[in-house]
Amino acid sequence: MQYDDFIQKVQNYTGVSRDDAVKVTQATLDTICERVGFTHRYHLAHQLPKGLRELMTRQKDEARISLEEFYRRVALRADISYRDGVKYSQAVARVLADAVPQGELRDILAQLPDEYAELFGKEPSGPMSPSVVP
Q: Which residues contact 19 (CB under 8 A, 6 or more apart)?
C-alpha cells in the first residue's frame, strides 16, 4: 500500500480532511511506537510505505500504557477530543491491519495486553471499556 492510499483510507473511515487524516495517522503511529518494542516496530515499519516508515523508527522508549492512556495520547497529539481519539485511532489501526501481513499484526498484538484488540476492531469487552465513550 502506498502512502497516499493509506491516508485516503483513513480519510474514508473517519470523514476528516487529508491534513487531519495525516495528523491522526501520525499521532496513532507515534503512540503505537511508544507501546511496542523496537524489534516489532522495526519489522512493522518495513511493511509500511515511505512517509509512515520513518514514524515507526524514531521513538526510542517503550512505555507500558493502558488502552485508555493510548487513546488519550492520540487525542492530545492530534489535538482532538478523547471520543475522536478513540474513533480515529481505530480507523488508523484498521488501515494498518490491511496494510501489513497478518503474521506481523499477530506479532504486534501478542506483545500488547488483551484490551488492545479493541483498537484493531474487536468488540469492546464491556461497558467500562475505554473504547466505549458516551
A: none
